[in-house]
Write a structure and sequence with these properties.
This protein has about 425 residues and is an alpha/beta fold. Helices cover about 50% and strands about 10% of the residues. The protein has two domains: about 280 residues, Spore Coat Polysaccharide Biosynthesis Protein SpsA, Chain A (Alpha-Beta Complex); about 120 residues, no CATH class.
């Protein structure tokens, strides 16, 4: 494996630090507005919960033009007394640099893994640079299961608005849970804890010149950890509030990125998931509490219009992928009034499995294939929004659980069609 080549001044920074118990990585690209808050929260968390440990904050930057790395270097907690700290703490080092390689979050992570390996870190954390809701407690909740509990991978568990995270809720969570048998609720959450051993394992995988290096890193990390038998947990972090996106807006590129990475992983780990039946929970840490969430606006009329346009433009492709029976079901949906629109869970499950099979059999170029899923996904999302609009957050979560069970119960269909 080619190692990331660090510029000489970064070697100097790494040598000065020498070794570390904990490495916290913050990948960034033009996040000067938000990254200061993230760095302060990380510093406070390390000081408060890990005063005896040697810690390093690593900012792996994609060539920001807005002074992001300068903000990282200048940011510090002015008064530790204000956050009720009176003990002596190990000084927290910082390393900030532009990474090299294919532009993307995966390349930023690779550089963080390299530094963690060089410093012989026992525990690592990565957090997004645009988080507005991160608190010092996040660091404790992502690190402690690794250092104190022997876990290799700690996924985040957030409360999110019931209309937020629709790609996770309708595709990625139900599919990965049914495939690999572990109930990791936020497999593409963006904020993770992991052991130094797992960081080294990631570095040895031959993916760093692929799409994983650009955009598939979150689902790749989660799936790779599960499929290779690493010890998994999740920690409740409260609300995830960051620069949110309207699920009815242009999600085409995000859908392509996440779904193509998920399907690619299915190819690589078929020997693992074909043996799995049902699912089991993973240990969960943290104190769960209700949180106030920012409202997400959704235009369902516009979404249903896009779904019906898909029926007109993509009929031949859908016929080839879904078969005549399920296409008839989809056409029946297209004829419903907006207020009656309901996408059956069994139909949606078969559609996702059919697309995974079409990807496996290379029925179409992958980009064409997954982009043809977009109007179906938008229709399913509109249906979910209409159904859960009057429901509480808890009731909406129960609807997602029903979909997960449908994916688990329908897995034989996938296995039968997977040549």
């Amino acid at each position: 494996m080619d190692s990331v080549t660090f510029r000489s001044e970064i070697h100097g920074q790494i040598e000065k630090v020498g070794s570390a118990d904990i490495v916290v990585g913050i990948p960034s690209y033009n996040n000067a507005r938000t990254i200061g808050h993230v760095v302060r929260a990380v510093q406070a968390g390390l000081a408060k919960y890990f005063p005896e440990q040697r810690a390093v904050i690593v900012n792996s930057d994609g060539g920001s033009a807005d002074g992001t790395t300068e903000v990282v270097q200048k940011t510090s907690v002015e008064d530790f007394g204000a956050i009720l700290l009176h003990h002596r703490i190990e000084p927290i080092s910082k390393i900030a640099f532009p990474y090299s390689g294919i532009p993307g979050k995966g390349s930023a992570f690779r550089a963080i893994f390299e530094i963690a390996q060089t410093l012989e870190a026992k525990a690592c954390v990565v957090v997004d640079s645009d988080l507005r809701s991160i608190t010092p407690e996040w660091i404790e909740l992502l690190v402690k299961p690794v250092l104190g509990g022997g876990f290799d991978y700690v996924a985040p568990l957030y409360h999110r608005h019931k209309f937020d995270g629709t790609i996770t809720n309708s595709i990625v969570y139900p599919l990965t849970r049914a495939l690999y048998g572990r109930r990791v609720r936020q497999p593409i959450g963006g904020d993770f804890g992991f052991s130094g051993k797992l960081a080294q394992f990631y570095l040895c995988q031959d993916v760093w010149e692929s799409d994983v290096a650009r955009f598939g890193i979150d689902i790749w990390m989660t799936t790779t950890a599960i499929a290779n038998g690493f010890k998994m947990a999740q920690s409740f972090l409260g609300a995830k509030i960051h620069d949110a996106k309207d699920p009815g807006a242009d999600l085409g590129s995000m859908l392509y990125q996440v779904v193509s990475a998920t399907f690619e992983l299915m190819e690589n780990h078929a020997a693992v998931w074909r043996q799995v039946r049902g699912s089991e929970p993973v240990p969960t840490f943290g104190f769960e509490y209700a949180v106030g969430l920012e409202h997400v606006n959704v235009n369902t009329a516009r979404m249903l219009k896009l779904f019906r346009e898909g029926l007109l433009n993509l009929r031949e492709i859908w016929l080839d992928i879904l078969g005549a029976g399920d296409l008839r079901e989809v056409e029946r949906l297209g004829a419903l009034d907006d207020h009656e629109f309901h996408f059956p869970l069994g139909l949606w499950t078969r559609i996702v499995y059919d697309y995974a099979i079409a990807f496996h059999l290379k029925k179409l170029p992958r980009e064409h294939l997954i982009k043809s899923l977009l109007p179906l996904y938008i229709g399913k999302t509109a249906s979910f929004v209409l159904e859960v609009d009057p429901m509480t957050q808890h009731e909406a979560e129960a609807e997602i659980e029903k979909l997960c069970m449908e994916f688990e119960n329908g897995k034989d269909y996938l296995l039968t069609c997977w040549k």
